Structure formats: C-alpha cells, structure tokens
Amino acid sequence: MQQSGQEIYPYQTDENDLRVLFNSLVAGKFFIAGLTGFVTVLAIVVALNLTPIYQVVSSFTSPNESSVISINKIGMTSETKESVFSSFLTQLSSKDLQRELFVKGNFLTKFNSNNVPINDVDAFITKAIESVKVQSPNLNKKDIDIGFLTEKPYSASMQGNSSEAISEYLNSLVALANSKTIKELIKLNELKIFNRIEEISLERDLLLEKAEKDRFSQIERIKEEDAQKIRQIIDQIDRARYQAKQNRLNQIVVLTDAANLAKSLGIIENNFKLIKGDGASSDLTIAIVENKDLPEWYLYGEKALLQRVELLQNRTSDDSFIPELVTLNNQLNEVQNNNLLETFETRQDDSPFIAQIAKLDVEKIKLESRKVEMDGVNAMQISQIALIPKEAIKPEKRLIVLLAFIGSFMMSILLVLIMGALKPDEKRVAH
C-alpha cells in the first residue's frame, strides 16, 4: 500500500524550526538594534548623571620608640607603644571628635560645595561621618606566629561625593587625633606632676609640723630636766650653807667655852709674846697637854676669844667660807642659761634640720622645671596619607552600561522571538 504524501522526518522539523527562528531574528534585526541601542544610550545617560562616590584611605602604624621615650620623659607615666597607639585609635574613632572637626574645620561648606539648602544640619553631619571606618590589619596565622616582625598598618577610610573634601577631612582627622592624643598625654602628665607637687607640699608640711612638735617636746624635756637639776643644785647649796652655819654655831660654842675657861684661869690677853718665832715655847710647859698644840684659850686669851665669838655671831652670810659654793653656783648658772634650750626656743625654721625635706625640695624643683614640649612627638607613624582619588568606587558606570547593553540585547531578542511565535503561519493561512 502506498503512502498518500511525503513522509516528514523529525530532524527536518527541527531544521525548519531553526530556520523559522533565524528568519524571525533577521526580520527583527532593526528592532533588536534599536531597542538595544536605545537602552544602552539611556544607561549611558543615567550613568553619567549618577552622583559618584569616592573613597579615600589613610594608613598608619604605632609610634616609634623615641616618641614614647619623650612622652615618658616629661612626666611620671610609663606609656608603651601599644598604649599610646591605642589612645590614638580611640581618639580617631570618636564620633565626638569627628563631629568637632567637621564643624570647626568648616567642612559643612566643603561637603556642600553646591550650596544646596540643608534642612537638618545635624543629620547631614551624621551621614557624612558615618562612612569613616577604622580598620585593623588582616592578620593570618603566620603573622601571629612570627609575632608581627613586620608591623602591618591600621587604616582609616571615608566615602563621599567630593574627592577633595573627604581627602582633606580624613587627613585632618588623623592629624587632629594624633594632636589630641599627645595633648591628652601631656595633660595627664601635667596632672600627675601637679598632684605629686601637692603631695610633696603636704609631706613637707607634715614633716615640719612633726619636727616642730618634736622640738617643742624636746624643749619641755630640757626645761623639766633643767628644773630638776636646778632643784638638786639649790638643795646642795642649801645643805652646804646649813652645814657652814652649823659649823659656825659649833665654833661659837667651842670658842665661848674656851673664853670662859681662859677667864676662869685668869688668861685675859693672848700669850703670843711667850712663844718663839718657830712656834715652840722656850720654857713654857703644860703638863696636861704635853706634846700637844697649845689650846686656844691659853694661846688667845678670853678677850680674843670673845671677839672671835662676836665676829662669828655678827656674820650674815657664810657663803664666802664655803669653797664648793663657787662650783655649785657655776653649775646653777650653766643650767639656768642653757644654750641648747635657747637655740631650740629661738629657732624659726626647722627645715634645714630635716634631711627628707631637702630631698622633697629637690624633687619639687625638678618637677617644676620640667618643660612639656612635644614637638616632633607623635602617637602614630603615617604610612600613607589620604590621596585625592581619581576614580569613583561607585557607581561602576562601565558595568552599568555593559549590563544595560547585554540585558537590552537579550530582551530584544526575546521580544522578537515572542512576536515571531505569535505571528500567524502564512502557509497555513494559504491552505
């Protein structure tokens, strides 16, 4: 049995379909080119009118050793590179400092170069400084293991519409944070120096007060000791006078008895004429006192003895007849005029006699003579200043145009194919 028509194979159907698609694309080439060109041109116009966003970056490392030494030299601190650099990073990240610089540095005008009216200045400043980022270096395990033999820098970045404004702002911010850190360290040192000087003054006053109290206590001890010595010496003088008086009274009694004896024996006058010049009698012998000195009653006689008694009775003071009284009076005068006591009482300043005060005074002079000069001292080392960028980081205009071109090209092809598929088949219409 013979087939009524020519048999159609599957591959022939596919070939026909491809031919139809190709013919549709060829037929819609002007549409594809026009739509793609229009969208691409539109993308170029839009990309050119988009506000560019620039980014600037500044990098820095910790301060050098000479800066740290200078910082510690001016005061009483023991800062390290890490502590100084940490203070710098804290200042750099401070939003208050960033806002202060934005206002005082007149960056409000620089960031708004077109003089567009600003309704909310605070919000404008907040938005501008939000892009300031401080980043630590990326450290891998190898960096940590070798202990940072080569110090990697920290970085600060900022984004904005004006490349010159953000570059100037970031450099100014780094410089201000550095200056602020150094000033804070100077202020801290000055405060510590001031506090130490106050402590020295207080210690000095306490030492002087203690020395004065000790001196007054010593004065009282000396006075008490001198009073005791005076009483002892006066007692010795009184005893010596009493003893001399008793000796005089005893002598009066003895002489009175001798005078009475001489009177009873009829010896009125003295017998000095009977005695030779050598003190021995030529022919006088008294049996009862043989080989003894001649008695006073015989030697002086009643008259002389009574006269001696009268002299002894009329004596008002025995001081001249007390040999040790001279020594005692000298001792009394020495105690009453104690030079050490007088020195302590007339002293106006005890500081020269306190060794610790001399050390404190020297320390105070050194602290007061310290000059707080920090020229050339920094809290960090600049590795790279923020340079004015030549190209914006966003939007990426080339990418926008490329994506618009590819997207519009693909879209136009798809539209042509859809329109071709929806178009009625001419052969079927003919049949």
Give the key terms.
431 residues; mainly alpha; four-stranded antiparallel beta sheet; 65% helix; rod-shaped; disordered N terminus
The topology string of helices and strands comes to HHEHHHHHEHEHHHHHEHH
Sequence of strands across the biggest β-sheet: 2-3-1-4
Taking pLDDT < 50 over at least 5 consecutive residues as the criterion, the unreliable ranges are 1-9, 278-291
Helix content: 55-70%
Total count of helical runs of at least 4 residues: 15
Query: Biggest sheet: strands, sense, closure?
Result: 4 strands, antiparallel
Structural class: mainly alpha
Provide the gyration radius in Å: 63 Å
* Subunit organisation of the chains: single chain
What's the total count of β strands? Answer: 4
Q: Estimate the mean pLDDT confidence.
A: 81
Separation of the first and last Cα atoms: 27 Å
- Taken from the alpha-carbon principal axes, the silhouette is rod-shaped
Strand content: 5-15%
Concise overview:
This protein is mainly α and 431 residues long. The protein is 65% helix and 5% strand.
Can you describe what's shown?
Among the domains are: 1-50 and 395-431, no CATH class; 204-367. It is built from 15 helices and 4 strands. The chain has helices at residues 10-27, 29-49, 65-74, 81-93, 95-104, 107-111, 121-129, 141-146, 163-264, 296-314, 324-336, 339-346, 355-369, 397-422, 426-430; strands at residues 54-61, 133-135, 154-160, 381-384. Helix 1 packs across helix 14, helix 2 packs antiparallel against helix 14 (397-422) and helix 4 packs across helix 9. Mean pLDDT is 81; it is low at 1-9 and 278-291.
